[in-house]
Write a structure and sequence with these properties.
The complex is a heterodimer of chains A (282) and B (275). Chain A is of the alpha/beta class. Chain A has a single domain, classed as 2-enoyl-CoA Hydratase, Chain A, domain 1. Chain A has 12 helices and 7 strands. Chain A is globular, with a radius of gyration of 19 Å. Chain B has 275 residues and is α/β, with parallel strands linked by helices. Chain B has a single domain, classed as 2-enoyl-CoA Hydratase, Chain A, domain 1 (Alpha-Beta Complex). Chain B has 10 helices and 7 strands. The chains are: A alpha/beta (282), B alpha/beta (275). The interface between A and B is large, with 86 and 84 residues.
């Protein structure tokens, strides 16, 4: 990106979840469902005297993308780290279930999920996990009909059970600033020690799990600049491509063949992963 | 984290053996055992993740679901889907669940463990949605991402009534660190906030667990215990086959799922008006 482009760009990362959803949909088409005026405060956070939010940090936005009926599910990373509690997860799962019902009625509603999440909201532990399982089930059911596209822009990234949901998406779009991984660096350090993963080493974290690396290693499909128009254009292109021949999650044989070749006696480098998967996942 | 190196880590292997009459595994995989045996007079596939102290991936030696385990779970389930692709008589899949956690490691993140677990989740969800009755039997730990990958997509979940059986989103030490609490404070909250609890009855109040089975001899189950578990699996199978739905919506009937129900009602009421 040149200096002029940088100054002129419309950052996607700096937008909140509602603004992201609005910017992705065609101008004037967005309608928010189960919005903040429904006052969907988490009963579980309130019980623990923690701050709640009237939309529980998830925006359900219906509208059109390049003229096609689309639902955008955008997670607000600024509220409780984008963590999934009962209500937020029910908003995503419930909307995906209704998109599936649309298909059964001949309406080809497609879905975008904007992942900005640390995973399960630990203050709602088992209900967050249950909600994520329901989101996962709904993605698998809907992606038989139409692409479900995931986006992670940063700065939170996409972790925990929601990274597994990301792995179910038909296509996955990232910026360089986003990270995608199952276990957050702090949790790995807690469970396995700093020698295994030093959570203060930012270069290590982005080098292994950042957007540029994930796309180079074929674990994501597009690395875009932090520019709202670029993110939107990438989504339009990917929806136009339709469903992948085989979803990434359904390539067990290819991944297992790759993993057999890994030298597990030493730690992995970013280049190791790129080399392995660029050959094995062609 | 709960100690994964105690011998309860082999509960999955033990129950797989007991329920399948020591059937020979379908593959020579060391950490994912898939055994074919009879359930209610028809073929069924039983799957467990088991420890392997010599696993090439050092962070997945105590029964954790790692990279290879995720993809092998996916393979074990997809084989069954392929076998019955041309028949409406879909065989049952029983996930025997004893998973202390997903594998926590640098190699795992680098090579995309989230994608491996997605492979397993997609396979189980596809199997259920294609009409395979999927039953999860919790015989030990059912933790976090490992549970999502192995069992959470089941039509029905059954747990043994045993203090060693626990279900949760994260081990206590890590959960305390992430939520900026002490382990003691976390335990105190877990006692009063149902979704935070680590015990089975609280879990059942969330609508996710269908049955808790009291056994007489937990360490070394006798014939009566095994018959009780078999009976519960057969009853779950009959219950699934009598229900045309293949989604997870029955979980929403749980006592503590009121907010989930309200959100879905609102979405359904507003969905078409939004066009």
């Amino acid at each position: 990106m040149s200096v002029e482009q940088l100054l002129g760009r419309d950052s996607f990362i700096e937008r909140g979840a509602r603004s992201r959803a609005q910017a992705l949909l065609d101008a004037g088409t967005m309608r928010e469902l189960a919005g903040p005026f429904e006052r969907l405060h988490s009963p579980w956070l309130a019980m623990q005297h923690l701050v709640t939010q009237a939309d529980d940090g998830v925006i359900v936005a219906k509208g059109r993308l390049d003229g096609r009926p689309t639902v955008v599910l955008a997670i607000e990373g600024a509220f409780q780290g984008g963590s999934m509690g009962e209500i937020g997860a029910a908003k995503i799962a419930g909307a995906l279930e209704l998109a599936l019902r649309d298909h059964e009625r001949g309406i080809p509603t497609q879905a975008v999920i904007v992942f900005e999440t640390g995973g399960v909201r630990l203050q709602e532990a088992n209900l967050g996990l249950a909600g994520i399982a329901e989101i996962q089930s709904a993605i698998v059911a809907l992606r038989r009909h139409v692409p479900v596209i995931g986006v992670s822009a940063g700065s939170v990234g996409c972790y925990g059970g929601m990274s597994i949901a990301a792995g179910l998406c038909s296509w996955f779009v990232m910026t360089r600033e986003a990270r995608l991984g199952l276990n957050g660096p702090q949790v790995i350090e807690q469970e396995a020690g700093a020698a295994e993963f030093d959570s203060r080493q930012r270069a290590l974290i982005w080098g292994l799990t950042g957007g540029e690396q994930r796309v180079a290693a074929r674990l994501a499909d597009a690395c875009v600049d932090d520019d709202t128009a670029a993110v939107r254009a990438t989504l339009v292109d990917l929806f136009a491509r339709g469903l992948p021949a085989v979803h990434r999650s359904d390539r067990a044989a290819d991944f297992l063949a790759c993993l057999e070749r890994v030298d597990t006696t030493r730690q992995a480098t970013a280049q190791d992963v790129r080399d392995l998967y660029s050959k094995g996942l062609e | 984290m709960m100690a994964a190196n105690t011998n309860h880590a082999s509960r999955g292997a033990m129950w797989l053996r007991l329920l399948t009459g020591s059937a020979h595994p379908a593959h020579d995989w060391t950490t994912v055992h898939a055994c074919d045996a009879i359930l209610a007079g028809r073929p069924a596939r039983y799957i467990a993740v088991v420890p392997d102290p010599d696993n090439a991936f050092p962070r997945a030696r105590n029964g954790e679901v790692g990279l290879v385990e995720g993809w092998r779970l996916a393979s074990a389930v997809r084989e069954v889907i392929a076998l019955d692709a041309d028949t409406d008589d879909k065989r049952a899949i029983v996930a025997v669940i004893d998973v202390p956690s997903q594998a926590y490691g640098r190699r795992e993140e680098a090579y995309g463990i989230h994608q491996a677990l997605a492979g397993a989740v997609a396979a189980y969800a596809d199997a259920r949605q294609a009409g395979h009755p999927v039953i999860g039997l919790i015989v030990g730990l059912a933790m976090s991402g490992a549970f999502l990958a192995h069992g959470y997509q089941a039509d029905r979940l059954i747990a043994l009534d045993d203090p060693a059986v626990a279900v949760h989103a994260m081990g206590k030490a890590s959960a305390a660190r992430v939520t900026l609490r002490s382990v003691e404070a976390l335990e105190k909250l877990a006692a009063s906030v149902p979704p935070m609890a680590y015990d089975l009855r609280s879990f059942a109040s969330l609508g996710i667990l269908d049955q808790i089975l009291p056994l007489t001899n937990l360490a070394l189950p006798d014939e009566q215990d095994i018959a009780l578990v078999h009976g519960a699996l057969e009853a779950a199978l009959a219950d699934i086959e009598g229900d045309p739905r293949r989604g997870l919506e029955r979980r929403l009937r749980g006592e503590h799922r009121g907010a989930s129900r309200r959100v879905r009602e609102l979405l359904a009421a507003q969905w078409e008006d939004a066009d």
